[in-house]
User: What shape does this take?
Amino acid sequence: MSQYWSKLVHSLTPYVPGEQPKSKNMIKLNTNENPYPPSPKSLQAIHEAANEGLRLYPDPNSDLLKQSIAHYYTLEAKQIFVGNGSDEVLAHIFQALLKHDAPLLFPDISYSFYPVYCGLYGIDYKNIPLNNNFEIDINDYNQANGGIIFPNPNAPTGIGLALESIEILLQQNPSSVVVIDEAYIDFGGVSAVPLINTYPNLLVVQTLSKSRSLAGLRVGFAMGHPDLIQALVRVKDSFNSYPLGKPATQGATAAINDKTYFLDICARIIATREKLTLQLEELGFEVLPSQANFVFAQHPKHRALTLAQALRDNHIIVRHFKAARIDNYLRITVGTDAESEQFIQSLTDIISSMA
Assistant: This one.
């Protein structure tokens, strides 16, 4: 039936999400989900929102959630935009703010959805290579551009960029929108949110999928100057005026407000990550310094694909990328302590059998 497709659809190369296995008998360390449940207060709010009021449309502006986010980050509600997961928020950003005559700049090793958005919206882009240590060098972005975007910490490397470097980047590109995608910022990075009131070209994107354990709820948000936010609202209201339902809005609001639970979960994941890093290094892996809820590692004597397949045979899934420069790396989500221990034991047995 492809004869009915538009020319655009024929040209697209869609994003491929990480595997969601049907079997429950798997340790799932491949999509950077939080291994711990959402805040009990969030679950209670979702439950309370699932009532007869669902016959009515939700608040199209999600004002309750915007106010909670603004209060948490010491901003104003007019500086907040919310959407159905950070991927939808990013899609609106690409269309509203990053489609210009000059190319959009982002790292060659980064979130693989970025080139997909460019293909969907007809945006010219240029990949900027990470340096030999897989780090972003901001001097490489001091060139003509129609915008700049990258995750911080970067994905899939997990390496963070210092706030001072982001500020220099903003100063070097006053006429371009700079988007900092902070999906993993809560696991050890330093957020660029404090720079928002100084730099009107800065837009910071975050999600509740990772640090707040709500990947299944689909809530993301952007923070920036009201002019940038208004551009996103114009695109949103030309696409879907009601991106968030009542359960999502109320559950997300409760999660933002439950700071104690949030900080405890992040601390637990950071501690497990540091232990996991040491254990991998003891097995001979080279592990990049991570500020995310995953680690990116390679073994000099064993192919990553072979290790990933052997782990799968042991009912453990990790992420392997086939892209150039990183095809011998595994991205390993930080699970619970018990999951991490089982992963390390299986990996130890696999490597021993290959000796």
About this structure: The chain has two domains: 2-36+260-354, 40-258. The two ends are 51 Å apart (CA to CA). The longest strand covers residues 202-207.
